[in-house]
Amino acid sequence: MSAPAAPTSPWQYPDFRLLAFSRAFGTLGIQMLAVAIGWQVYDLTHSAFAIGFVGFCQFAPSVLLVLHAGHLADQLDRGRILGLAHLLAGVAAAVLMAATFFSAVSPYLIYAMAVLLGVMRIFGAPAGQALLPNIVPKEVFSSGVALNSMAFQLATILGPALAGGMFFFGTVAVYAAALLMLAIGGISALLIRTRTRGEKRPMNTENLWAGMKFIFARPIMLGAISLDLFAVLFGGVVALLPIYARDILHIGPQGLGLLRSAPAMGAALMSLYLSRYAIKNRAGFWLLASVVVFGVATILFGFSMNPLFAMGMLLILGGADMVSVYVRSHLMQLHTPDAMRGRVASVNMLFITTSNELGDFESGLMAGWLGTVPAVVFGGVMALVITALVAWRVPRLRKLKSLARIEVEETVPPS
């Protein structure tokens, strides 16, 4: 009898399906929470700074816990960490649902729940990122990255759109639906059978900083994640979408849901394309070009006065950002030893959280000082400037050809 054919798709692995379900439903819940929180804070305060401060509250736990989160992801079962993180976010949804129902919600309560969501993200994301290479082999890993990202992006499309639609039934309904999605996501992760408990290591300074040292010793990895950090830190527009929806485009909370869905729709389309046509050559060029497109689309969005044009620009910048995510995912996951993946993923998550959540805070501050439209345009210009600086200062990243060959240059220590 001949041996059974090896699986040719990550979908053939049950644990991959569970991971994809967990990420999809968990992301649905988080995105619904984000829309409800953003609209509710702006409705209560009419302040761009208040919207940005939500991002700061989510960022703050990262600074304190990121290294510990990565260490635990290399020590404990990654599926269980991911599942418990989703359930923790469900607690935040339940608290906000109850407070809104009893008319007891306040900006300060929302800020406190944002901190809880930040804790959830900093523990859950490294575990989820480090888990994927344990579940699927290298032969189908590229497809796994793209499909896993597509599940995330599809949920990021549907989550805000569903939240916007459910505003017809009230904010309480949005929080209730988010709670249900997070519960499904948490249970799916807890059902993953692959066990990843690593070798016990003491939680000392050397082990906690190992992930940071690993990345800083590899110029291509450091350059790629630094590019994303500073481009999105300045160029992100998500935090200001409630202002665009209410005061500039005049499309209300339902329109806000569509605006928040648009970048993810562009990213999902790009994920689908990359799952079939992987980047096999000139990876560095495509990474830098994608950030240029991101910056230009951000500038054009800043000037938009038409909802359809605004959504089109958000669609384009989402697709461009997905190319950056794709390249960084390969660099971080394929070329990191399994024993280090949790700690390296936690450092990557710190960079992502800094760019997204601290970027939201920066957007709120700039909008408060300059005005909303000038703040967005300034961010797009800064993304272009940062791309030029990285291309100049990190020539190895600019000249990077194949993602598969970096292992020889970056991960094998000199003898």
Number of helices: 17
Q: Helix and strand string, N-terminal first?
A: HHHHHHHHHHHHHHHHH
Low-confidence segments: 407-415
CATH topology: Growth Hormone, Chain: A
Strand coverage percent: under 5%
- CATH H-tier superfamily: MFS general substrate transporter like domains
User: Biggest sheet: strands, sense, closure?
Assistant: none
Residue share in helices? over 70%
Task: Give structural attributes.
415 residues; mainly alpha; Growth Hormone, Chain: A; 79% helix
How does this model look, in words?
The chain starts with 13 loop residues before the first helix and ends in a 5-residue tail after the last helix. The protein is globular, with a radius of gyration of 20 Å. The chain has 415 residues and is mainly α. The protein has a single domain (12-195, 204-410), classed as Up-down Bundle (Growth Hormone, Chain: A), CATH 1.20.1250.20. The chain has helices at 14-45, 48-75, 78-101, 107-135, 141-166, 171-190, 205-208, 210-216, 219-235, 241-248, 252-276, 283-302, 307-334, 341-370, 372-393, 395-398, 406-410. Helix 11 (252-276) packs across helix 13. The protein has 17 helices and no strands. The longest helix is centred in the first third of the chain and has 32 residues, at 14-45. Residues 407-415 have low confidence and may be disordered.
